[in-house]
Design a protein that fits this description.
Helix content of chain A: 25-40%
Number of strands of chain B: 0
Oligomer: heterodimer
Distance between the termini of chain B: 21 Å
Structural class of chain B: mainly alpha
Radius of gyration of chain A: 24 Å
Number of helices of chain B: 12
Largest sheet of chain A: 6 strands, mixed
Order of helices and strands of chain A: EEEHEEEHHHEHEHEEHEHEEHEH
CATH topology of the largest domain in chain A: Rossmann fold
Radius of gyration of chain B: 19 Å
Mean pLDDT of chain A: 88
Shape of chain A: elongated
CATH architecture of the largest domain in chain A: 3-Layer(aba) Sandwich
Strand order of the largest sheet of chain A: 6-7-8-3-9-10
Distance between the termini of chain A: 36 Å
Largest interface: A-B, 29 and 25 residues
Low-confidence stretches of chain B: none
Order of helices and strands of chain B: HHHHHHHHHHHH
Structural class of chain A: alpha/beta
Number of strands of chain A: 14
CATH superfamily of the largest domain in chain A: P-loop containing nucleotide triphosphate hydrolases
Number of helices of chain A: 10
Number of domains of chain B: 1
Low-confidence stretches of chain A: none
Strand content of chain B: under 5%
Shape of chain B: globular
Chain lengths: 295, 256
């Protein structure tokens, strides 16, 4: 659906995004993750044809340039803040771009906005404005939706609702590119992850592969922890400790089990040491920074 | 561009300001009528109660917000990506202001005709009487309005240019208001200061603002502008096109 090849984006002479390439298929939910100033919003704006760039962006095989957005009529977006006219009612804001009154009414109801949709948008709370911004992005059943920090200002019920709606649209074939600092929320919906740092894409992978590749150690607890430690050291098995466990890399786990079994020590606990999604992201970013500093 | 134009008109209709300024315009026309007295009945009708300057000023006030509201509300991003290209967004705003200018001028003419029907502000004068350029007074009014719409297009192109150059709509309003109220005066001071190359200097863009006043008072203003009506008209159109192109160039280069 969306293809980005060798994308370079400049602000003046400074290269903000360097050689970015990725693809998004039908129904995919891609999380775009990176620290502040990494270039996430810039990439999103560029896909929407709002910034000059070098490289190639195509949507359904047709090229998008900074002055030709014809292919974007099936695209919805919420970038930075909800783009709302305060002097219009919420409904009028939607009607401005709506092509189907019936589906717009359904969207308003689905988002739980019926009670205030006929009030002037200027009087809305931050959360109400955010919902209206999301409604604008989801208007006219788009094929591709860009959401920049969609959960900003939303209460827990609304956050869950938006998550459900994203999944619903995705199951109908709509693709999403979502950036959020609330990684735990993003983790619950995304099917792929793109990590960007200093304008460079440092990881682009399906979420299952990402989780698999970043869960490579096990937690071990035995009936005799001191003896276990001694045995593992004697057999040159690298081991680290947390409060109650040993942490052992998965490549040594079979060997470790055999050694402690042979010495009549019994397992109390053996479980994959899963880092949280946030920890994994931080590890990847720190590793990248380390590599850059070494260079 | 039809869709973008429809969107712009929809937004214009739903704002309070464009309707509010019509009341201000009518109040100004009443003050002008009372101020000029019954001796200038025909001139008041020809100039739609001297509404030209106030229409231009009100256009500046409404027009400067037509761009700035998009930048302030960040709606410019939605507007741009949902449009086919940047030029259609820019031109839709330009044509919306022209349509609004035509609306203000038509309302000014209708109000003039109503004022001229009843002896409340001034004594009614016959619209069929012969007045300037050996034409009926009604034709004079239509022609003056037409000429003033051309001048308003010049001001609209300036609004588009300055709004894209300057993010503060207050500064845009002040700059354009100065141009409207002092532009022709500055130009005539320059031309009357016996500068060299008068033949070139008289083509300065500020001189084109004399077009409407010269049209209904040729003998006085021709001495100031040093250009004929047709020359002023051509100059006005040319400068409107130049400012419009410059405005579009700035709009395309602007970072959103």
């Amino acid at each position: 659906m969306l293809q980005i090849k060798e994308l370079d984006i400049y602000y003046g002479r400074k290269k903000i995004v360097k050689n970015a390439s990725f693809e998004i298929s039908d129904g995919e939910i891609v999380g775009l993750i990176g620290p502040n100033g990494a270039g996430k919003t810039t990439i999103m704006k560029t896909i929407l044809g709002l910034t000059k760039f070098r490289g190639n962006i195509s949507f359904n095989g047709k090229e998008i340039t900074d002055n030709n957005h014809e292919e974007l009529n099936n695209v919805g977006a919420l970038i930075e803040n909800p783009a709302i006219y305060p002097f219009l009612t919420g409904k009028a804001n939607l009607e401005l771009y709506s092509t189907n009154e019936q589906s717009t009414s359904e969207l308003i109801t689905r988002l739980g906005m019926d009670s205030y949709i006929n009030k002037k948008a200027g009087s809305y709370s931050i959360g109400m404005k955010q919902k209206l911004g999301i409604a604008l992005a989801l208007l006219n059943n788009p094929k591709f939706v860009i959401l920049d920090e969609p959960m900003n200002g939303l209460d827990i019920e609304s956050t869950i609702l938006i998550r459900q709606i994203i999944r619903e649209y995705s199951s109908r074939g709509t693709s999403f590119l979502i950036s959020s600092h609330v990684l735990s929320e993003l983790q619950k919906v995304m099917t792929s992850v793109i990590i960007i740092n200093h304008g460079e894409i440092i990881m682009n992978s399906p979420i299952e592969e990402f989780n698999k590749s970043n869960s490579s150690s096990y937690l071990l607890r035995t009936t005799d922890m001191d003896k276990t430690f001694k045995l593992l050291n004697e057999n040159s098995i690298p081991v680290s400790k947390d409060e109650n466990h040993f942490i052992i890399k998965d490549e040594y786990i079979d060997k470790s089990q055999k050694i402690i079994f042979d010495h009549q020590i019994w397992l109390i606990e053996l479980a994959p040491n899963e880092l949280t999604f946030e920890q994994n992201i931080i590890n990847i970013l720190q590793k990248k920074r380390g590599e850059n500093n070494a260079n | 561009m039809y869709t973008e134009l429809r969107h712009e008109l929809y937004k214009l209709i739903h704002r309070k300001l464009p309707w509010l300024v019509i009341i201000i315009m009518i109040l100004f026309m009443i003050i002008m009528g009372i101020g000029m007295g019954s001796d200038y009945g025909k001139l008041l009708v020809m100039t739609s109660y001297n509404s030209s300057q106030i229409i231009l000023l009100l256009l500046v006030i409404v027009g400067s917000t037509i761009f700035s509201m998009e930048f302030q509300n960040k709606t410019i991003l939605t507007l741009l990506y949902r449009s086919k290209n940047k030029s259609s967004v820019f031109l839709a705003k330009f044509f919306t202001l022209i349509i609004y200018s035509i609306l203000l001028h038509v309302i000014a003419m209708i109000v003039t005709i109503i004022f001229n029907m009843f002896p409340l502000i001034n004594n009614p004068v016959s619209l069929n009487s012969i007045y300037k350029y050996h034409q009926y007074l009604f034709v004079n009014m239509l022609m003056t309005t037409g000429v003033d719409i051309v001048v308003s297009i010049l001001i609209i192109s300036l609004i588009c240019l300055t709004s894209c150059l300057i993010n503060s709509n207050t500064i845009v309003i002040v700059i354009n208001a100065i141009i409207i109220f002092m532009g022709s005066g500055l130009s005539s001071n320059l031309l009357n200061a016996n500068v060299r190359y008068v033949n070139i200097v008289r083509w300065n863009p500020l001189n084109m603002l004399n077009l409407t006043t010269q049209y209904y008072n040729y003998s006085t203003y021709h001495l100031t502008s040093m250009l004929s009506n047709i020359q002023l008209l051509m100059g006005t159109i040319l400068y409107a096109m130049i400012f419009l192109l410059l405005g579009y160039f700035v709009f395309r280069k602007k970072k959103f």
